[in-house]
Amino acid sequence: MRTVGLVRHTTRAADGAIHPEWTWAMDTQRAEELDEAQASTEPQGIRAVASHRSSMADQREMIGISRAAVHELRTPLTAIHGYAQLLRRGLSDPAVAQRALDVILRETTRLSGLLGDLSEVAELDSASFYSDPVEADLIAVARAAADQARGLDGRHDLRVVDGSALVARLDPRRVAQILAHLLSNALGYTPEGGQVTIQVKRGPDGVHIAVSDTGMGTNSQEAERIYDRYYRGRDAERSSARGLGLGLYIVREIVRRSGGRVWHEPGEGGGTTFHVTLPEL
């Protein structure tokens, strides 16, 4: 922007008479001041608009996440309420009553898992996260995690690769958390009858945990996003995987805060293998 205006000046004619004249002139000092003001305000305005758009996008994302969370929490509650109503009215058929009790047990377990995930995320978001390293047999920790997963699943071939005791100084509770979420993810994305394998060994970077499945694999376009909080992949609807999309996020955060690394790669015969390395503490 430039400031232009009329400027009055005079000229003297040959006969000595003074004649006023008007010409257009530019106020360069004022123009420079206006340019500086414009330069300082335009980027701020652009940044403000960009920030507003980013904020709106974040709000829309949070609304979508909230709706998904409400849906996931409401679904088991609806099933529990419905079958509890049936039992309250009295059922003459023992098989139907047993079916109702089985559904209630399954859905309360599922609801407990969802609330557990939210509780773990709250712990990660607070200053209360800590590790308590002790000498522990991680093969035994893996077997315990597999037994617990079998009790909740029962539809897959879940194995722990045989090996001698592997004693390492780590927090067994954190290792169990990592395994529980990796197993839940593997079982959820593997068709019934498929195989899930756990292997724990010592490697150059510490303890190496691998959880492999024969499921549908991961989409290369979502390779990094699957570790994001509340992210559920496009294949989630085609699988039996349920949840809030927090499991792999929790794994990543525990591993990161333990000084380790997590990554995944396609399995040899299909499916996916998730790897975790943890340094001894």
Topology summary:
Layout: E1 4-12, E2 18-26, H1 28-89, H2 94-125, E3 134-137, H3 138-152, E4 157-160, E5 167-170, H4 172-188, E6 195-203, E7 206-213, H5 247-257, E8 261-266, E9 272-278
Parallel strand pairs: 4-6
Antiparallel strand pairs: 1-2, 3-5, 6-7, 7-9, 8-9
Helix pairs in contact: 1-2, 2-5, 3-4, 4-5
The H/E string reads EEHHEHEEHEEHEE
Largest beta sheet, briefly? Answer: 5 strands, mixed
Q: Tally of extended strands?
A: 9
Overall SS class: alpha+beta
Q: What form results from the Cα inertia axes?
A: globular
- CATH fold naming of the largest domain: Heat Shock Protein 90
Return the domain count.
Answer: 3
How far apart the termini lie comes to 64 Å
The assigned CATH architecture of the largest domain is 2-Layer Sandwich
- CATH class descriptor name of the largest domain: Alpha Beta
The residue-averaged pLDDT reads: 81
Radius of gyration: 33 Å
- Helical content stands at 40-55%
Strand content: 15-25%
Low-confidence stretches: 1-7
CATH superfamily of the largest domain: Histidine kinase-like ATPase, C-terminal domain
The strands making up the biggest β-sheet line up spatially as: 4-6-7-9-8
Question: How many individual helices?
Answer: 5
